[in-house]
Amino acid sequence: MKIEITGIRCNNLNCDFVDEKVSYEEYHLWFDVSNAWLETLEGSPEIVNGNFNCSHNYITSLIYAPKVVLGNYNCGDNKLSSLKGSPEIVNGNYDCWLNELETLENGPRIVKGNYDCSTNDLISFKGSPEEIGGDFICNNCGNISLKYCTKNIGGKFYYNKKKSNPDYCSYECNDYDYELKKYKEEIIKHQIKAKKYIGDNCSFSFEDIEKEFEEYGKKLKKLENS
Question: Structure pTM?
């Protein structure tokens, strides 16, 4: 299969720029344009059979990013205010950390690996994936509601709020601490299932809340069917 590329030509970690249209065989391993001072992804291949990495640039849009990436997808440390242009399904990890995102709308619907949206300006989890196969990592994103958060997380859920926030626990939590209790209640209320939940200096496993989680889920189903 041939892919027409205009603008960026990469060979492993060595990149140069071309003005003419160049025809290449489909990328079999990766497409890496990280740390390249890029402001646009125009000219990227449509399909990458391996990993795609455009991190550590000044990119403001994913419109020209590859539409199909069979490995990991990393657009971290850019100037993105929207995830529009992301693939619908990512077979590996999806990293969008350190951007200017307020929501996760227009991002991938399914991520089979880890999903990291840490260090953004989130005001809502709206648009988070329907399913994450690995860990969901959301550190330093502020004190936002867990409404709209992904409900099916195959690994751990890291939700560390900004340490400058005095309303969240800054001390070692235990089962009797108010903040830990509040965190558990939010997880149960929004039916967020993960193997383990990790916050600032506090953590608990799904087994710790399994009974209450399932009981609350049954109540929700009864309300839906009534």
Answer: 0.84
